[in-house]
Every structure is written in structure tokens, then in C-alpha cells.
Specification:
single chain; 64 residues; mainly alpha; Helix Hairpins; 3 helices
């Protein structure tokens, strides 16, 4: 299983429902807010959040 399959669910990410989309859009919004609160100098912490947000956006984009 890939990291994406583990995070989003192997079957859930393939057969996307409106609940799945809403949940991950909300999670991306929360992560974007958290990212805005982390100082620019904390590059490592910021990159972790950026990677998570990007993964969510990729799954949501593929599901459309």
C-alpha cells in the first residue's frame, strides 16, 4: 500500500463520495490555517504541512 492509500483509504479514495470530499476539504482548510500560524523560519514543520495539503489536493483533484 502506498502512503496515500493508508492515509485516505484504499477503497475510499477510489470510490469518492461527497462525505469523503467534504471531510478532506475541511482537513486541508485546517492544515492551511495551521501553516499560516507557523513562522517562516520553521521550514521543516512548514514543509510537512505543505506536503500533507498537496497530497489532499491531489486526491481531491483526481476524484473529480
Amino acid at each position: 500500500l502506498s502512503t496515500s492509500d493508508v492515509r485516505f483509504g484504499l477503497f475510499l479514495s477510489k470510490e469518492v463520495s461527497s462525505v469523503f470530499i467534504k471531510k478532506w476539504q475541511k482537513e486541508a482548510t485546517k492544515l492551511e490555517f495551521a501553516l499560516s500560524q507557523i513562522p517562516e523560519k520553521n521550514l521543516e514543520e512548514r514543509q510537512v504541512l505543505v506536503d500533507k495539503i498537496q497530497a489532499i489536493k491531489e486526491v481531491l483533484h483526481v476524484s473529480k
